[in-house]
Amino acid sequence: MSAIHVVGGGVAGLAGALALARAGRPVVLHEAAPMAGGRARALADGTDNGTHALVGANTAALRFLERIGARSGWLEPEPEGLPVLDLADNSARRIALSPFAWWRRSRRPPGCSIGAVLAMARLASPWRDVPVARAMAEHPAFHRSFVDPLVMATLNTPSSEASSARLGQVLRRLGAPGATRLLVAERGLGPDLVEPALDALRAAGVDIRFNSRLRAIEVEEGRLSALIFDSRIHADAALLALPPWEAARLLPGLPVPEAFAPIVNLHFERKGPGPVRFLGCLGGLCQWVLVRPSGVAVTVSAGDAEAELPAEALAPRAWAEVLRLAAVFRLPGEWPLQPPRCRVVKERRATPRHLPGPPPAPPRRPLPNLALAGDWTWPHLPATIEAAVRSGEAAAAALLGVPLGNTPIRLPRRGAWLSLPETRTVGAAANGRAARSP
Ligand SMILES: Cc1cc2nc3c(=O)[nH]c(=O)nc-3n(C[C@H](O)[C@H](O)[C@H](O)COP(=O)(O)OP(=O)(O)OC[C@H]3O[C@@H](n4cnc5c(N)ncnc54)[C@H](O)[C@@H]3O)c2cc1C
């Protein structure tokens, strides 16, 4: 049986490769970088590129963690509700993520009223799509304390721009029991996600190739015929799990998101006794603070302005806020007044901006023997680990339904978006490599 080539070793590619290997297909996984994980990766020193949280509603992601034997590495740091400090008035409270827990006054967000909850419930309507801030304009306190942080965390887009319909996709999933449980990797994305995934792939016989960048694809008679890396590989089938800009380079005309939002993470080298904590902050630079025994990580989502500032400007501000959180919530251990060494990671294209209007909808299988995956290809959710896993598994399923090898197949009519001639090499010109155009 000929191998299926999976290109892209982010979460979507890892999930797609595992699904194919579990179905008994030989798989080769190609990743351009020297490590896997993509936008959810461990850096060379073991630090996460950025804090990643899951919720109980992320059923596909949690199932994937089960499959790779990593579920126990994801723990719920704040089962009693998220500790949140409002820097504007120094008020501290625990806020439940589930509205069903708001019957307890002490777990309610400020500004919570029946009218505010109804306004949020209306955001879940799939028929209305406006900027979230406009939809919540009559409930500013509730918007500031609950909806806006939720928008930043799930859509990575400022509320003034963010699509209420995309937020609705999230809200509709948060009603199920356990759906709002918030989980983080106890040790980090390396040991709790990427390494177990690679181990599971190797155990399933997947051939993993790092530093293997796809430069172009060859299409013959409407089918993928070869993949051009540093050398040309004949390919009977492939799953491309690439970021949108790479997919668009290889498949000109593909509808892809074009506006992106950054996430800035500050990683402070502060060792402490534990346990792992996850805290929220309103009215400052920090939005979320993850405290692990190995270090303290601060997240600034949709940080357009912050992504332009130097580390020296960000670190002292963030650390001052961390100290206030540590004092208010009585975090154990030493908290030095001077900021410890800090590494700032700016992911400039962390996710697409989720704006009102229908998101780009690329076909799952643009060619009969080529399937697409990636968080941005899953129209039912914002770009998240959950969307990446679901898209990878859906792309694998789409390929497994296709006859492979030399079996002749009837070509479906190609969609209007794909301007590929019947036989040619695509994608090579963009990186200056000479490639054959037969
Ligand atoms: C800082 C940060 C924080 C986040 N926080 C959360 C969170 O809390 N919860 C959540 O659910 N999601 C979060 N996300 C989003 C989540 O990381 C992404 O949705 C997910 O990782 C996307 O996976 P992917 O496989 O679709 O894409 P990617 O991770 O982008 O994977 C694509 C892979 O393809 C490789 N590649 C690119 N070009 C080529 C080529 N030509 N040939 C071969 N390989 C190539 C890349 O190197 C990369 O490894 C966060 C993202 C960031 C950046």
Characterize this entry briefly:
This protein has helices at residues 11-22, 59-67, 114-123, 132-135, 140-155, 164-171, 189-203, 244-250, 311-328, 385-400, and strands at residues 4-7, 27-30, 53-55, 74-75, 82-86, 91-95, 182-185, 207-209, 216-220, 223-228, 232-234, 237-241, 260-268, 277-282, 288-292, 295-301, 342-352, 370-373, 423-426. With 438 residues, the chain is α/β, with parallel strands linked by helices.
What does this structure look like?
The relative contact order is 0.19. The protein folds into 3 domains: 4-48 and 188-258 and 358-431, FAD/NAD(P)-binding domain, CATH 3.50.50.60; 99-173, no CATH class; 260-352, no CATH class. The protein has 438 residues and is α/β, with parallel strands linked by helices. The protein has helices at 11-22, 59-67, 114-123, 132-135, 140-155, 164-171, 189-203, 244-250, 311-328, 385-400, and strands at 4-7, 27-30, 53-55, 74-75, 82-86, 91-95, 182-185, 207-209, 216-220, 223-228, 232-234, 237-241, 260-268, 277-282, 288-292, 295-301, 342-352, 370-373, 423-426. The protein is globular. A hairpin with a 2-residue loop joins strand 15 and strand 16 (295-301). The chain starts with a strand and ends in a 12-residue tail after the last strand. Bound molecules: flavin-adenine dinucleotide (FAD). Flavin-adenine dinucleotide (FAD) binds next to helix 1, strand 13, strand 17 and helix 10.
